[in-house]
Amino acid sequence: MIKNLDAKQAWQLMQQQPQAVLIDVRTAMEHSYVGHPPDAVLIPWKEFPDWQVNPAFVEQVKNIVSDIDTPVLLLCRSGQRSLAAANALEAAGYRHLINIADGFEGALDAHKQRGKLNGWRFHGLPWEQS
Known about the structure:
Number of domains: 1
Radius of gyration: 14 Å
Helix content: 25-40%
Number of helices: 4
Strand content: 5-15%
Order of helices and strands: EHEHEHEHE
CATH superfamily: Rhodanese-like domain
Largest sheet: 5 strands, parallel
Shape: globular
CATH class: Alpha Beta
């Protein structure tokens, strides 16, 4: 089953369940230059320039999280790619999947800008840049 949590709820879950693994499914450029939560494991769901789904995604997650009962949190920019990635992991048998529904940058506001309504950075949760 896939749960949708906002960034603050996801952070709380990570504090309560230290065995949980946070997978950042954004591109390597987003992860490095936009920023990422500390200890987030980068496994892109899609990558620039072709934007095709990473055919090795599930296998790459299995290399990091071999126990299908481990809580796996998935993070992207705004919660869409992470939900698609969660669906793929659910189909592969993972049982505790958490989509961070507002993502790292959050939803678009009325001016089509992110980071002003919600998301990981908006809530001041720990993050870093390369």
